[in-house]
Known about the structure:
The chain is of the alpha+beta class. It folds into two domains: 1-30, no CATH class; 31-88, SH3 type barrels, CATH 2.30.30. It is 21% helix and 27% strand. It contains three helices and four strands. The radius of gyration is 16 Å and the shape is elongated. The protein has a four-stranded antiparallel β-sheet with strand order 3-2-1-4, with no helix packed on it. Strand 1 (36-41) and strand 2 form a beta hairpin. The two termini are 31 Å apart. InterPro entries: Myosin_S1_N, SH3_Myosin.
Amino acid sequence: SADAEMAAFGEAAPYLRKSEKERIEAQNKPFDAKTSVFVVHPKESFVKGTIQSKESGKVTVKTEAGEIFSMNPPKYDKIEDMAMMTHLH
């Protein structure tokens, strides 16, 4: 069972897997893979961003400036097998 698998992680288990309710909410949350990105941030490492426009090789993102990386949909938060992710950074 899933609970038996997670028991090996002890106290950390609740932080490694979302509840069923959270997983359903994440799967139903609107997500646009073409505009959702992560932006390198000097203090936070990466912050979420949304592409506002692309023109002549320049991208305008709604957040702080930095290098841009594609973002995975919310359904992949706390995923147990990273091989299933669309983007790895």
